[in-house]
Amino acid sequence: MNIVGSNSFPEYRLEQWNSLRIQLLWAYQKQGNLPQVIDRMDYHFQSAALVIKGWAKVGVGTHEEQLAEPGQWLIFRQGRRRQQFSEDCELLSIVYRFQLPTGEALYNEGLPLIFEAAQVPRLEREARKVLRLMARHVDAGFLRSQQVLDMRDYMLTQNALRSFLLELTGILHARGVHPHVMGKGSTQVAQALELINTAEIHELGKSVTNASIAQQVSLSLTHLERLMVAETGRTLFQYIDLRKLRTAQDALLAEHDSMKAIAYSLGFSSPAHFNSWFKKRTQMTPLQFRRQGSLG
């Protein structure tokens, strides 16, 4: 990565830009149905929320909590966070992924961040474009990976997200928030991550294995494992397991499929097995995650 000056945008090779995961999950403006008790979930996406009414409080620990009030933007970090909202809180919220191939957020250090909306009026304009296009072309709710969309609708909504993110990243850079460093990495690891990241839910439950990935990138399993750990800090099995977890979380947030259907799609022998696997990794059951995640 090459950064020229504190306010400039990062420069990556084209293949690295192509590897980024840029995805609109949902957009809404709503009041109520937000957690008024402290919520300590591990979020695998990011949110940018404009407080319209009431207040929102967020942080990583109690000593780091920040309070956003009407007329302020609150940019949430990815990962575990504490958050709480007033009873009358109303938010304009854009929920998205802007991630490295490994699943880490491109911008995360220095967040959460609060700033005045009046100082950056274009950000709200871009956010409302996303909101209007979602309502017009996709309808409210979570964008499911299996959802069928017209090409024009898909491109309009995703292009609106990119315009919003371009505006947001300029604001982040101006406030000293810089992107995660993306190393050069090996072609084989990039290929392996792409294969795992683009796998369908039923493939993660059956055909995506350590051996199959190694075979497809033309490396021995031992060599690929060594490269994976060196570049991502995770073994191949750990990364497949993480992708499986993220896919399960997406399916639970979408609220269209039953937990039984999700369990079997991911290759679990029973809903009980899925329940224990999920709870071991998130400290909550799939049902608890669905109930809490739908509030975010």
From TrEMBL:
Entry keywords, A to Z: DNA-binding, Transcription, Transcription regulation
Residue stretches making up the HTH araC/xylS-type domain: 190-292
Pfam families in the cross-refs: HTH_18
DNA-binding as UniProt keyword: yes
InterPro entries (UniProt xref): Homeodomain-like_sf (IPR009057), HTH_AraC (IPR018060), HTH_AraC-typ_CS (IPR018062)
Superkingdom to which the source organism belongs: Bacteria
Signal sequence, renumbered to the chain: none
PANTHER family, alphabetized: ARAC-FAMILY TRANSCRIPTIONAL REGULATOR, HTH-TYPE TRANSCRIPTIONAL REGULATOR EXSA
Protein name: Helix-turn-helix transcriptional regulator
Organism: Thalassobacterium sedimentorum
Taxonomic lineage of the native organism: Bacteria, Pseudomonadati, Verrucomicrobiota, Opitutia, Puniceicoccales
